[in-house]
Write a structure and sequence with these properties.
The protein is α+β, with helices and mostly antiparallel strands and 583 residues long. It has two domains: 2-37 and 418-580, no CATH class; 66-168 and 209-390, DD-peptidase/beta-lactamase superfamily (Beta-lactamase), CATH 3.40.710. The chain is 27% helix and 22% strand. It is built from twelve helices and 21 strands. Strand 6 (336-339) and strand 7 (343-347) form a beta hairpin. Helix 3 (110-123) packs parallel to helix 8. The longest helix has 31 residues, at 392-422. It starts with a helix and ends with a strand. 44% of the residues are buried. Bound molecules: 2-acetamido-2-deoxy-beta-D-glucopyranose (11 copies). Residues 1-19 form the signal peptide. It holds the Pfam family ARB_00930_C. Keywords: Signal.
Length: 583
């Protein structure tokens, strides 16, 4: 009796967690393994994107003065390229034809390289993310009155959680406005002028800012916020990370980034020194690129794609301390987060039939005349890089023409794969050529399961008979009655990213994937209103219920070695294996 009571209790607790889900707000983020894009699978999507870009260029005057490069790639291969060369050339910007090797200033995308450099040093044990900056940049100790350096850690610097000011000698209206008094601003005294750092904007970008300029001017600026309170973007923070890198490696920041990242990845068109005018689109040469960790790199779209592929493939194994794509702080708004320099955006508004969230891991960069975006879609195994020389609105239009269409196209490919590879009816009787798993079923066992694919529910269970019993109805009604909710509950599959191998019926080696099915409430018909705003309050538990110590919702999908299709399903808690029935 005690056993049953605690099992019921467990069920009550888990279903409460499971079913606080209205309008499908807690749909698992992963409904499939990241798809592959063989055989031109995204052909129509790219045709559509290309047409949109052509229309933009034709209709928007900004593109007469803006060059851009755009590339889309999976983790394996480049899938789409589009280059546009500005029509109007200026004296300093000869109209070269833009291609994948054309170099752009990537501005703040440089911070990705700085952050990666720090994480690599952390993985080597040369620094700790929670160390104070003082440990590596002792000179800061001279000024303990303006800043709480003890609490400014490497981690907080990476995620802009330091409260440090943004820039040292950039974005200053004093030099950006021809006549500041026309804006109601008072004149700046000569005394004040003499205290400003003699570099960056204050030198009309003829002098780069040095470490000495930084250390001297910081106390004068003072903090924006105390450390660790809320994020505020800080270029200065990345300059300090550049100094940390110099300190722990004993190398110049730029030499370290080159030897530890650019060279090993073969990024031959990426450098801190301005390339020849013919290799780039440089409206004017500038000393701004000489600064440290914040924004000095020149790179090409083909190189940045190689770099982003590396990020996509390695984000979870750069250091055991963290996943590089994980968020660290809330940004403003409901959907934005700051990571270890990644700007993370999550939305459920793109997929028309589902409340499933799509995560964009991004980094934007922008300075005078140069703008760039890096975008990674981990769930779809896609990366995008686009850079422009010219006007920012033009790049925003390019970005907008790509991002949602790409998600919708990739989603179609993934759903089609769920349909052909996984969906279907599997039964104990379908195990005609018994594999070792199937041969463990009792003879004549009446068990079968039907997996359905749809754009709203992805892969879900539409029928399930176990030993002549309607297991689907039984499990669904237990879940629903225990949670006290009467929504339209269904079981949706989500992959566990664990592969196993085992013998197939002909004795050869086959691979299996472990998935789980999770309660989701499909209330897409119910309009949202003020009383159900809490319905997408989600806790994650992929292992809510066991039977005899075995997870009830674990399913192993076994692949046919030849066709690549799922040939057999094993449900460990039900001690059953079922073969795919011929369509
Ligand atoms: C771009 O410049 C060309 C040549 O000056 C002009 O004919 C065309 O109308 C311009 N395009 C747009 C969209 O303004
Ligand atoms: C890109 O253009 C440059 C200059 O026109 C040329 O040297 C280079 O080979 C081109 N690269 C590619 C990948 O086409
Ligand atoms: C790193 O910083 C520490 C503390 O400021 C200092 O003792 C050490 O000499 C520095 N190392 C290098 C290589 O700059
Ligand atoms: C700054 O440099 C630009 C380009 O080199 C030049 O046109 C401008 O006159 C300079 N401004 C000042 C205030 O010196
Ligand atoms: C970069 O150059 C090196 C040495 O010339 C070469 O081995 C490598 O393949 C190049 N990388 C790319 C992406 O072309
Ligand atoms: C870009 O990289 C390619 C391949 O390594 C190389 O041949 C070319 O010279 C590089 N271009 C520039 C401008 O560095
Ligand atoms: C069972 O296996 C035999 C020999 O391997 C094969 O000829 C037959 O087509 C298979 N039957 C089914 C239903 O897969
Ligand atoms: C099938 O159900 C019967 C009772 O209805 C039970 O005796 C038997 O052990 C079950 N077999 C399996 C494999 O679950
Ligand atoms: C299997 O069980 C289901 C549900 O009890 C029943 O409808 C069906 O007829 C059974 N099939 C066989 C072959 O016994
Ligand atoms: C079966 O294949 C997997 C993955 O390809 C491999 O890791 C495993 O060693 C293989 N097992 C045997 C017995 O060949
Ligand atoms: C708002 O939602 C609640 C719970 O879903 C429902 O009971 C109520 O009728 C709804 N009210 C309106 C005005 O739609």
């Amino acid at each position: 009796m005690a056993g049953i009571t605690s099992a019921l209790l467990l069920l009550v607790l888990s279903t409460i967690v499971w079913q606080q889900t209205v309008r499908g707000g807690c749909v698992p983020e992963y409904a499939f393994y990241p798809p592959s894009y063989s055989n031109n699978a995204l052909h129509d999507t790219f045709l559509d994107i290309q047409q949109s870009l052509n229309v933009l260029i034709e209709q928007q005057e900004a593109f007469n003065d803006t060059s851009f490069a755009l590339e889309v790639s999976s983790s394996k291969e480049t899938l789409f390229k589009f280059y546009h060369t500005m029509l109007r050339a200026t004296k300093d910007s000869p109209t070269e034809t833009i291609n994948g090797s054309t170099m752009f200033r990537i501005e703040s995308n440089t911070k990705l390289f700085t952050a990666l450099g720090i994480l690599k040093q952390e993985a080597l044990g040369h620094l700790d993310l929670d160390d104070s900056i003082l440990r590596y940049v002792q000179d800061l100790e001279a000024d303990k009155t303006s800043f709480d350096w003890e609490r400014i850690t490497i981690r907080s610097l990476l995620a802009h959680m330091t409260g440090l000011p943004d820039t040292l000698a950039d974005d200053d209206l004093l030099l950006l406005l021809a006549n500041p008094t026309e804006y109601g601003l008072p004149p700046v005294s000569d005394k004040t002028l003499s205290t400003l750092p003699p570099c960056g904007v204050f030198s009309n970008y003829t002098e780069p800012c040095t470490e000495q300029d930084l250390l001297q001017s910081l106390p004068q600026y003072g903090p924006v916020l105390p450390p660790q309170v809320e994020p505020s973007y800080s270029n200065i923070g990345y300059d300090l990370l550049g100094l940390v890198i110099s300190n722990v490696t004993g190398m110049n920041y730029r030499d370290y980034i080159s030897s530890s990242i650019l060279q090993p990845l073969g990024l031959n068109n990426t450098s801190f020194t301005p390339p020849a005018q013919s290799a780039a689109k440089l409206p004017y040469p500038s000393a701004w690129s000489q600064e440290t960790g914040l924004g000095g790199l020149y790179s090409s779209s083909s190189d940045m794609i190689l770099f982003l592929r590396y990020c996509l493939l390695n984000h979870d194994n750069i250091t055991p301390s963290l996943d590089w794509f994980s968020p660290k702080a809330y940004s403003a708004g409901q959907h934005s987060f700051l990571g270890y320099t990644w700007e993370i955006f999550r939305t459920s508004s793109i997929l028309p039939d589902s409340e499933r969230v799509v995560t964009f891991v991004t980094k934007g960069g922008g300075g005078t005349e140069y703008y760039s975006y890096s975008i990674i879609l981990p769930a779809y195994d896609l990366v995008v890089f686009t850079a422009a020389a010219g006007e920012l609105p033009a790049l925003n239009d390019v970005f907008a023409a790509v991002r949602d269409k790409l998600v919708l196209g990739a989603e179609r490919v993934a759903q089609q794969d769920l349909k052909t590879t996984y969906a279907g009816t599997y039964s104990a009787l379908g195990c005609r050529n018994s594999s070792s798993l199937c041969s463990q079923n009792p003879p004549g066992l009446n068990s079968s399961i039907t997996l359905a694919q749809s754009s709203s529910r992805s892969l879900s269970i539409s029928a399930w008979i176990s030993n002549s019993t309607d297991a689907l109805q039984a499990l669904l009604s237990v879940s629903s009655s225990q949670s006290g909710q009467t929504g339209n509950v269904y079981f949706q599959f989500t992959p566990m990213f664990r592969a196993i191998s085992g013998p197939s019926s002909d004795g050869s080696n086959r691979t299996g994937e472990i998935w789980r099915f999770i309660n989701v409430i499909d209330d897409t018909e119910v309009p949202t209103n003020a009383t159900n705003v809490w319905d997408d309050y989600c806790a994650s538990n992929l292992d809510p219920l066991r039977y005899g110590g075995v997870s009830v919702n674990e399913v192993v999908f076994w692949r046919d070695t030849e066709t690549g299709l799922i040939e057999e399903i094993q449900i460990p808690a039900f001690q059953v294996a079922m073969g795919r029935e011929k369509a």
